[in-house]
Design a protein that fits this description.
Layout: H1 11-23, E1 28-31, E2 34-37, H2 43-62
Antiparallel strand pairs: 1-2
Length: 82
């Protein structure tokens, strides 16, 4: 790990990142001014995620709770700031 601080992206750079992310064939994450490449999931991982989502969705339907939902990890979402 280097002790030299990395330059952070400006707002214009961030907007360019968002445009690039929409077109990209790979995933990346923008975190605290830096862009990090993300690895793809394996077939086994996706099967497990599918099974968990199915089980949680069924249990939500079974108990008729509508306040919550179950989403796979590929869903882009945001949480409100507190």
């Amino acid at each position: 790990m280097s002790g030299v601080p990395k330059p952070l992206l400006s707002e214009a750079d961030y907007l360019a990142y968002l445009a690039q992310e929409r077109q990209a064939d790979f995933k990346s994450e923008f975190y605290r001014g830096e862009v990090f490449a993300m690895t793809g999931a394996s077939r086994r991982h996706n099967l497990i995620v599918g099974n968990v989502v199915t089980a949680l969705t069924w249990s939500t339907f079974h108990y008729k709770t509508t306040e919550t939902g179950c989403f796979a990890n590929a869903t882009k979402s945001a949480a409100p700031s507190s």
